[in-house]
Design goal:
The chain has no helices and 15 strands. The chain is mainly β. The strands form four sheets. Strands 1-2-3-4 form a four-stranded antiparallel β-sheet, with no helix packed on it. A four-stranded antiparallel β-sheet has the order 5-6-7-8, with no helix packed on it. Strand 3 and strand 4 form a beta hairpin.
Length: about 180
């Protein structure tokens, strides 16, 4: 078995790892940063997200632009090629709870999920949802009743969305043939 090697220290709350173009990209919620790290341990702060937003989760559009979910304000941000952050979509009309996880398929469809309650404030449990943001900018809820939707993945052929339900302790697959 290969020896374990530490590539980076000092992360306050690392989340949402994504491998892209030979680097590991991740969010550090507490530092409000998105970081890219190469296999030798060289890191770069790619973007700082201004307070009160936090970079909860990230993924990439097919054209390479970075999407950042900010649960605190219902916005989905996009990093432009010049490094600027712009609003990609306002999702407050789909859920007033915000979203915590994101995955983008090869066609540019963006799936977001969120819990139906605020775990941090001790709100009573309510199941969460999955929403779809299409490349034309329309957004709608596409699934509900998921106890606590968390991680998601899309199969390489774009035919299936898989959602991890942390409270339900299960993976649920949704047909995605459009």
């Amino acid at each position: 078995m290969p020896e374990v090697q530490t590539l980076m220290t000092g992360l306050a709350f690392g989340e949402s790892p994504r491998w892209r173009h030979g680097r590991l990209w991740l969010s550090d919620w507490v530092a409000h940063e998105v970081i890219a790290l190469d296999p030798e341990g060289r890191s770069e702060v790619v973007v700082r997200v201004p307070f009160p937003s936090i970079p909860m989760c990230i993924d990439f559009l097919p054209d390479g632009r970075l999407l950042i979910v900010s649960p605190s304000d219902g916005r989905l941000m996009r990093r432009e090629p010049d490094g600027s952050l712009v609003a990609h979509a306002d999702l407050s009309g789909v859920s007033d709870r915000g979203f915590n996880e994101i995955v983008v398929d090869g066609r540019g469809n963006t799936y977001l999920n969120g819990a139906g309650f605020n775990l941090m404030t001790g709100e009573e449990f309510a199941p969460g949802i999955v929403a779809l943001l299409t490349p034309d900018g329309s957004a709608r809820q596409v699934a509900d009743g998921i106890a606590f939707p968390n991680g998601m993945a899309v199969t390489p052929d774009n035919s299936t969305l898989i959602v991890a339900d942390s409270y339900g302790r299960e993976l649920t697959a949704f047909s995605n043939r459009r």
